Structure formats: structure tokens, C-alpha cells
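C-alpha cells
________________
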Amino acid sequence: MAETKLFRRRRTHSVSVGNTAIGGDNPIRIQSMTNTPTLDTAASVAQIKRIADAGADIVRLTAQGIAHAKNLANIEAEIRKDGYDIPLVADIHFNPKVAMESALYVEKVRINPGNFVDPARTFKKLEYTDEEYLAEMNKIESALIPFLDRCREHGTAVRIGVNHGSLSDRIMSRYGDTPAGMTESAMEFLRVCVKHDFKDVVISIKASNVAVMVETMRMLADAMARENMTFPLHLGVTEAGDGEDGRVKSAVGIGTLLAMGIGDTIRVSLSEAPEAEIPVARMLVDHIGRMTVNLRGEKNPGEVRTPFVVGADISEKDCLQKYNIVTVSGNNAAADAELQLLTPSDRPTVLHAVYGPEMSADEVCIAAAVDLGSLLLNGFGDGVWLTAPSLEESQIKSLLFTILQSTRRRITKTEFIACPSCGRTLFDLEGTLARVKAATSHLAGLKIAVMGCVVNGPGEMADADYGYVGAAVNRISLYRGKQCVEMNIPEELAIERLIDILKEDGKWVEPTL
């Protein structure tokens, strides 16, 4: 009798964050983050309640300074008084003293290896001798030990959160802007935790480029396994954007890893109200929960072509007559299709996702992004086809082109890299993103970033052609790649000036009506 293949998550140990456990045999936990000023207790409490009511398991708040950290105690007291027991996480950048203070008041503290001890990224190519590099590592350990002792004393968990956009110059000097560099940035901190027997750690590595995020998290999981580490993993595609773009990017990246058994807690990062992230994350987790076989994550060993879209580039009739059709939807279909696709075919292959009328348009968006995107990311598929009664033909075409763009297999429109706003955001991110999109969404092939602050903003410019970054209240800095070309200009002039820069660079075309 053939052995039954069951869906399994990678083995991790369980970490308690307040009354919520992450990893082990626990469910995949869903998180979000407030975008209110942390010093505004009433606004933060009201938003935490909305996030909790939407179904989140954990909520994070930014803490830029000691005053923000201290106010976390007031926020927690207010939500507990009103009967909410959702754990709170403090998000720290640049300041270990704030991390130490925050550990007194919340259930978990997130620190960023790129700026916890190392100075902020400057994009300077630095050279380190082996002795100098070791000295910097010893400095990290010296700074981290007191923080871990404080967390141990107060039962506070830690998230080590690496961001593609804020790798330190020290890491960049040895590894460059690569998945290997991001992995090592996390592993350096994890080795200190292991050395000092601190186990209450969750790790994340995030990037706005979905392919980079998936490759890096797989590399991290393998690196941990080689060193016998079992820390739980947090998944997310940072700066995913809003609307269909943000949902598809998140579903492709997070869903691909979950389908391989990697991941214990997730955040869908949308440039929208935080509570809007929760239903999307729930649909994603539910879709993975219906799988019974893991994806292997195999790469296409043959030629990788730019995929066509059935219904837009070719007709369904021609598709049925000329191509090898592989169904990728259903409980096991994506994993079964992966094995089928490893066998060469005489005809080009079309990945066909089929969903019934019982699935809503939103559910189809998430399911198709996972089922098609997980295979496209690894180079499979000469074409894509989607059948879904809940979507109109124009919606199907839009969704398929968005999935192709998120996997970087085919670029047909402007790509917007936009952070979810948080308490550090210095302008109306949702409204600004909408205005930038309205002005530039016809510029196919350009990558434009809209970032709320300087924590990840300049770093994520490395993957964007142009950037719009909050510099101060009502002030914007504009970037060409990694170079700041306009600093602290009035917000009301920023989009017009961005267009001027595009014209100067020969990247502007007038929109057609």
C-alpha cells in the first residue's frame, strides 16, 4: 500500500508571546501593525481593538524613543481594561535603549539586526579585515546580551527582523545586497541567542521583491537546520502596496513558503487600514490549510520563457489545441503539478487554475496567486489560464498579469513599492500612494517606491527606479535609485517634481485617454 503524503510544516519549537504561542503545533498566527502615533493613546487603543476584532492574534506598534516605549504601558493598560488580551509587540529601530525600555511593558520586542548595533546604512562600500569584522561581531554580542537578559527576566519574547532595505554596511561589505547577506544578518544574532540559551525568539526576513523574499527565507530555514536551530519563522512581503497588487504580492510570497511547510506566523503588509490586512491573511491561511501535500520548491530545469496569458494573448480554443494543459488548483494540484512539470513535454505548458462559483472574487485572487505564483516563481509555465465564474473577463486578465508581474516573469505595468504606514509615517500614505499611482501608473516597467519614513525608505530605493520618501512633516525627499536628488521639498509640490525628474531622465510619456 502506497504511503499517504501529508502536508507538514517544518519543525520549530513553540515561543510564547503573552497568551499566544507561535510555532510548534500551534496554528499559523496572524499579525498586523498600528499606523497611529504611539504617543496617542486613545487612537492607538481604538485601532488595536479594530485589528483584534478583525481576527488578528498579535499586534505591533512602533516605538521611536523612550517616551513612546513608556507609553506602551498606558496603551496596554487601556486595552486590558476593556477586555482585550491580544499580545503587543514593540517595533524598534536604531536604539537599543528603547528596546530595553520596551521589554518592560510588552509581550515581544522586534529588533532589526541592520541597525540595532551597526550604524544606519549609508551605501558606502566599506572594507573590513577579519580582525575588524570579528571586533564588530563582539560588539553586537556585548550589546545583545543585556537586552536578552532583560527579556528573560520579564518573560518578553524577541523578534529578530531583517529587512532587505536596512542591511548594515558591514553585512553589505562581505555579502552584498543578497539573500546570503540577509540570511547571515539573522544568523549572527541567532547564534548569540543560542550561545546564551535564549529560545524565545521569532525570526523574519522581508523584502519587497517577492522572489528575493522567498529565496532568502528558504535559505534561512536551511541554514537554521544545519545548525540545529528550530526558531519559529514570521513571513511577510514588505512594501507590497495596496489593492490587487498588495494582495497578490503577499499571497505569492507568503503562500509559496507556507505551501512548502515554512512559516509559523504571517503579516500581509498593505498600504491600507491595518484591519484590512486580516481577512486577506485569513483567506491565505485557510487556502494553505486545505492542502494535503507540500510543494517541493523544485526549479524548472529547462528553458524559462516569458509567459503568455490565455484570453489576452491567445484564445482558449488555440490553447486547448496547441498546448500541454496542467491543472494547478485544488487540494493537491499545485504539488502534483510540480512533479508533472519536471517531466519534459513536447508542447509548451499552460498552468490552468480552476475555481468554482462558491469562491468569491477575493478568495480567487488569493488562491490563484498561491497556486500559480508558487510555480511561476520557480520558472514553470509557458502560459497561464484562469477559470473563475466569480470574476469578469477583464478581472481575470488583470489578475493574471498582476501575478506574472509579482513573480517578475512578465512586466506589463508600473510596479509600486509602498510600505504599510505605521506610527513613523510622516504623511497620508494611502492618499499619497493613490495620487502617485494616478500620475504614473501608465509608465510600464518603472518601479516607483512610496515610503513613509527613512527606516526602510532609502534601502528599498535599491530595488526601485525612483522613490518618494517622507522626510519630515509635510516634507518629501525624492530619489533616483539610491541617490537622493531632491531633499525636504513641500509635499504639495512632490508629485509634480517627481514627474519633472522622470521627464529629465527620458522616462516620461504622456498618458493616453
Notes: The longest strand covers residues 483-490. Residues 130-154 form the longest helix (25 residues). The chain has a mean pLDDT of 91.
